[in-house]
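Structural prep section.
Before we set up the soaks we want a predicted structure of the protein with iron/sulfur cluster in place, mainly to decide which crystallisation condition to try first. Input record follows.
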Amino acid sequence: MLAPGDRSVCRSKINKDGTLYSLAYGNPCTVHIDPIEKKPLFHFKPLSMAFSIATTGCSFRCLNCQNWEISQAKPHEVRHSELFPDAVVLQAKKSNSASIAYTYSEATTYFEYMIDTARLARQAGINNLWISNGFINKGPLLELCKVLNAANVNLKSYSDDIYRKLNGGRLQSVLNTFTTLHEQGIHFEMTNLVVPGYVDDPEMVKKMCGWILTTLGPDHPLHFLRFFPKYKLDRLAPTPLATLENFRKLAMAEGIRYVYIGNIPNHEAANTWCHNCKKLLVERLGYAIPTFNIKSGACRFCGTVIPGVWT
Ligand code: SF4
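Run finished without errors. Recording the tokens verbatim:
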């Protein structure tokens, strides 16, 4: 509860004389056009572009935040432009972007701006992508699901203790978000940034995979990302490649079908292989796709349906 004069934890809302105002609405501090693979979303409209916006603000306090200059700032502390929902949709159209991505900082902190934009985008035939820490109540998430096409949600660890220490967040709310997205039939992918000393325990990864399989099934892609020293963890070494490769093997041995390694250019674990016949379906070199063997949503070799939205 915010008393008059208080500011929210995410720093972008204030209680002014008893009314809650969003200072982020229509005020993006970042506007980019990105390849969708950068989100990362590997199983949703490959090679399409995402008109990407962010305002300042986040509900978490990750010690390793890559975007801390905006996620941990107040709206007036960062240069921003005025871009209201209709203008976002117009610019996305002009740039031939298939989607609008709400990304970089934490989009739940500018929920009102996001959902107004997403509703207009839906009417205009543009997809909505939510890139998030997943910390959101079920009510607003269900509202969002009505206009959402795909999401990438961070599963930062499988320990509430680590969530508190590393992220200033809580685990259960994030798990609930995955369950809701799954129940609502939204395409989503999961990202786990492997921070050395915090999130590199194979036993925890095994438990995390067990929860994913039992609750969400084997088909939602999982990305293990390499950590690079940043923000308050600038003295840690990057994640060793062997750790990422081991986690990928472990997750696949547990039964998750599509497991990727990210933040390592041109590693073969960025490619998609058919979970049935094991043949190469999508070869990724940076953001280029020189090989693509999915036809009508299925493996060109054995006809197995590949989870995702491919056209
Ligand atoms: S949730 Fe994302 S944007 Fe927010 S502090 Fe953590 S890494 Fe940064």
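Observations: The two ends are 45 Å apart (CA to CA).
Flagged for discussion at group meeting.
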